[in-house]
């Protein structure tokens, strides 16, 4: 399954089809930071049972879904967005996708109905790798990496199909793996 795309900030990690770790089973992770000291990212296709209004009292009418960003820091809330024209804050991690920003501005915009659900994603926790850890996982073929993807897929409402859609988007060399069973013993 090995591909030769090196990870960078803004890359997507696509888990191999038989990954048994429930934190990353058939997951797509957006890397918000990839530096020598380590890597941080968010699982894009594991919706939690919570809405933003359930976690932050200042968002009484915010019915935005909250995703499980990963197994680290699950008592923290993070967000990515593509509304920098109104937020004017956050670090651009990919073309038009921003990580974090001024939370007070975000509150005002959400409470004023100026940000739609397909413009921001919230995460409880994150995925993290120490220096060299992700490189080892890539050598073990645990992940595919891509830097070519449509940002609309990430912010869509089809998170249950995201892994499949991203894999198919990698081309015919990888598209066939979407038909593999989740557990090789089921074959």
CATH class: Alpha Beta
Task: Bin the helical content.
Answer: 10-25%
Strand count, sense and barrel status of the largest sheet are: 10 strands, mixed
* Annotated CATH topology: VC0467-like
Give a written overview of the molecule.
The protein is an alpha+beta fold and 187 residues long. It has a single domain (12-186), classed as 3-Layer(aba) Sandwich (VC0467-like). Helix content is 23%, strand content 32%. The chain has helices at residues 52-55, 84-87, 103-111, 133-139, 151-154, 159-169, 172-175; strands at 12-15, 28-35, 38-43, 47-51, 65-68, 72-81, 91-94, 97-99, 120-130, 143-146. A hairpin with a 2-residue loop joins β2 (28-35) and β3 (38-43). The longest helix is centred in the C-terminal third of the chain and has 11 residues, at 159-169. The model has no long low-confidence stretch (mean pLDDT 92).
Task: Summarize the SSE layout with pairings.
Elements lengths: L11 E4 L12 E8 L2 E6 L3 E5 H4 L9 E4 L3 E10 L2 H4 L3 E4 L2 E3 L3 H9 L8 E11 L2 H7 L3 E4 L4 H4 L4 H11 L2 H4 L12
Parallel strand pairs: 5-9
Antiparallel strand pairs: 1-2, 1-10, 2-3, 3-9, 4-5, 6-8, 6-9, 7-8
Q: What descriptive keywords fit this protein?
A:
7 helices, ten-stranded mixed β-sheet, 10 strands, 23% helix, VC0467-like, 187 residues, alpha+beta, globular
Q: Brief overview, please?
A:
This protein has helices spanning 52-55, 84-87, 103-111, 133-139, 151-154, 159-169, 172-175, and strands spanning 12-15, 28-35, 38-43, 47-51, 65-68, 72-81, 91-94, 97-99, 120-130, 143-146. With 187 residues, the protein is α+β, with helices and mostly antiparallel strands. The two termini are 18 Å apart.
């Amino acid at each position: 399954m090995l591909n030769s795309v090196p990870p960078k900030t803004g890359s997507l990690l696509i888990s191999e089809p038989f990954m048994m770790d429930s934190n990353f089973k058939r997951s797509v992770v957006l890397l918000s930071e990839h530096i020598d000291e380590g890597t941080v990212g968010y699982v894009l296709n594991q919706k939690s049972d919570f809405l933003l209004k359930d976690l932050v009292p200042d968002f009484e009418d915010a019915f935005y879904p909250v995703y499980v960003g990963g197994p680290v820091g699950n008592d923290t809330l993070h967000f990515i967005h593509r509304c920098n024209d109104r937020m004017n804050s956050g670090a651009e991690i990919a073309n038009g996708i921003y990580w974090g920003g001024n939370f007070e501005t975000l509150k005002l915009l959400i409470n004023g109905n100026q940000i739609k659900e397909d413009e921001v994603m919230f995460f409880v926790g994150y995925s993290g790798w120490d220096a060299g850890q992700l490189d080892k996982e890539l050598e073990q073929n645990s992940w595919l990496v891509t830097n070519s993807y449509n940002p609309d897929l990430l912010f869509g409402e089809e998170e249950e199909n995201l892994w499949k859609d991203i894999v198919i988007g990698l081309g015919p060399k990888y598209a066939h793996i979407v038909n593999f069973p989740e557990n090789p013993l089921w074959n």
